[in-house]
Amino acid sequence: MARNDLQGTLDLLILKTLSQTRSLHGYGIVLHIQNASDELLQVEEGSLYPALHRMEQSGWLSSEWALSESNRRAKYYKLTLAGRKQLVEAEKNWEQLMKGVQTMLRFA
Amino acid sequence: MGIVRRLSALMKQSRVEREIDEELRSHLEMRAADNVVQGMTKEEASRDARLRFGNPVAVKESVQAEDVALGIESLFADLRYGLRGCLKNPGFTVVAVLTLALGIGVNTTFFTAYDGVALKSLPVKDADGLLRVEQWLASGATGDPQFFFSWPEYLYYRDHSRDLMETIVASRLISVPAIPPGASVASAETLQGQMVSDNYFPTLASSAAAGRFFLAEETRPAAEPVMVLSYPFWQRRFDADPSIVGKTMKVNDATFTIIGVAPRDFIGTGAPPLVPDFWAPVAMQARLEPGHLWLEQPNDSQLQMLARLRPGISRSQAEAQFLLLAEQWGRANHHQDKTIAITLERASFFGETNTVWFRGVVALLMAVVGLVLLIACANLANMLMARGNMRRHEIAVRRALGASRTRLLRQLLTESILLALMGGAAGLLLSVWMSHLLGVVLTQMVQSLQIVGGSAFTLNLTADIRVYAYTLLLSLGTGVIFGLYPALRFSKADAISALKDEGATSGQQTTRSRLRSLLVGGQFAVSLFLLISAGLLIQGIRRSLTVDPGYETKRVFFVSLNAGRRPSPALQRAVINRLESMPGVASVAIASKPPGTGTYTVPAIVEGSRGSEWSLRGGALGDLVSPGYFHTMNVPILWGRNFYPAGGRIRSPRRDSKRSNCEAIMARRRCHWKTAQAGFGVQ
User: Which of B384, B480, B510, B657 has the fewest CB atoms lying closer than 10 Å?
Assistant: First the structure.
């Protein structure tokens, strides 16, 4: 995904990912987005982390260190209550945006 | 520098930073491991992982930027970096810190003085609850008439406001001839005494430094005279000898027993802050001032009144009650000047500081010291600009490595604030010294004025919490305001052009140098302005030293006469005759106040005018003098004649200070003075 993608898209993807799984580390989020989108979406892996930290600062995510399946220490992120509310909001905005763009494209 | 290095080592790898590192590393490792599973070699796997990840340093920078709310870690990093920069460039640092120290030091010194004059509380028990009673008169008279009350008036107020407040009074400082214990009659000294109400010490001081305070039975007129010494006087005159308590001191013709010493920091109730040598109960008035008995006089205002409200009583409640009492008192005693308001102000060292005059002077001085700081700041901004230019390369590299603009802005601002804080700390040190100097100079100035000869004038110019807070705010403000522009400017630097050719395109160069010449020009202008002001001030002082005051200054000497407050006419005549018979003395005159040391405000009325006798108040300043005064002072009488010697009551004492004013009135009418209860002057 390009750096200046539609604003909030990456946030939405992360929120959605974490709502579909219990808790996940950054690498897991990358893989999940890739799989769940049938390889259509590729997150630039590095750009994920500033977003994760920002969302944690905003109180949408909480994090803790734990061991991964491959026995490696990793930081796991989880959705908070505020994060769930934010997800509903972000989905609504996204649908709004899609509707707007589609209407605009169909405009003859 | 060992400490600095150890501190920085301690802070080097902060917890948050380590966590970010570990998180990113674990990501790369997981990706590489997956790659290996998919059949890549180890090298290929980690290369691919890094490619997908992007620049880890840049990622780390931006993750850190997101974590700024955790702030303190990156602040430490910035401080560490800033400190290192300061150490690496000591010349720059020293000049910048010294420049700021001067600017901030001058401002802090001024604030310390302002604090000492207007803000500090008196060193008494529960100072914030202590209020000074001030009355506002229909005539608009200001100064002493507002603050002084007679003894019967005080008793009236005290007895009718007991439920609302505790009221205390203190007299003016009076000079008395005294013979301290152990001294001979021939070595009489002039001491400054103050008379206070019986509840004065219990209300203001916790306990005596030695001995005790007045007992209730000692505050009756018939009681044996007692006094409490002030701490500075006890130290100065008796070397803090504790056995002084119980000894006696002769004042005028009465023998006073020393019963105690006031606490070390007790300086009385100020306004102005003159510390007497001793305190005595008001009841001793007749013995301290045998020539002037005012204790029974309802209209002889000699006492400053202070009040402490009872719990739960509001200031406005107390003021209303006071005004009511003042009106009743005024009616009962036929006061011509009506009291229209009473205010209770927090008792400070110098009385009323809420006046337009005081505020104006403060604003003016503040502007002047502010300009000094402005010069220092312009200097700092200029130096920061110059240094920023040299650091363009460094900043460009950090930009290229992925530092965001906010991150750099924070870094640069932290550095300028760091400089400003160091300057502030140095300025504070400087101001301690400057305040001390100012205190010494001011004290000497006041004492040379001889308003009250010999007594200790106290000016508390030590820094307190307010001064520290002021300096801190001033330094922070300086750092932010004057670091902001250079920081904004250089954090913007375009990485590529800066790296390529140091960004020295001609356009940028001109704007930068234009700003810098603006700064230099401004600095120059303000400095010039200050120099001119200082020059004018010095010129003014010089002129005031050489100005002709209208009376003889070279051959006239002042001799103060210590014989109680009002020497008898016979004594005055005897003194004049004795002095005049001395060889080399041309003439001798007596004045209640020598020129330049103040005047009386007398109720006067111009004959035929419709105003009340107070209408000239403030405009008619008087002095009580002997007939030889005009001759001795070499003041010509422009109209009319001199007093008749020994001619009954004194009429129309002509004043020298407002001569031209009176002359104008007298050209049309006769100036008639209704004063002249001539206790002083030859009869």
Answer: B510
Q: Is residue B77 part of a domain?
A: no
Residue B360: which residues within 8 A CB-CB, separation 6 or more? none
Tell me the ipTM for this assembly: 0.85
Structural domain of B288: 127-346
Partner-chain contact A50 B52, CB within 8 Å: no
Q: Tell me how many domains chain B contains.
A: 4
First-to-last alpha carbon distance for chain B, in angstroms, is 82
Residue A45 has its nearest CB partner, among B26, B53, B62, at: B53
Instruction: Classify residue B112: in a domain, yes or no.
Output: no
- Bridge partners (DSSP) of residue B306 are B132, B168
Contact by Cβ (8 Å): B350, B117: yes
B598 and B459 fall within a common domain: no
Cβ of residue B394 closer than 8 Å to a chain A Cβ: no
B487-540: per-residue pLDDT in tens?
A: 888 777 666 666 665 544 444 555 556 777 888 888 888 889 889 988 998 998
Q: Tell me the chain A residues in contact with residue B31 when contact means C-beta distances shorter than 8 Å.
A: 27, 45
Which among B527, B546, B565 is the end of a domain?
B546
- Which tokens hold the place of B92? 């720059």
Query: Do residues B629 and B667 both lie within one domain?
Result: yes
In a domain, B60, yes or no: yes
Interface A-B: count of C-beta contacts within 8 A: 61
Are B173 and B310 in the same domain? yes
B456 - beta bridge partners?
B275
Please say whether the beta carbons of B180 and B249 come within 8 A.
Answer: yes
Kindly report whether the global pTM for this prediction surpasses the value 0.80: no
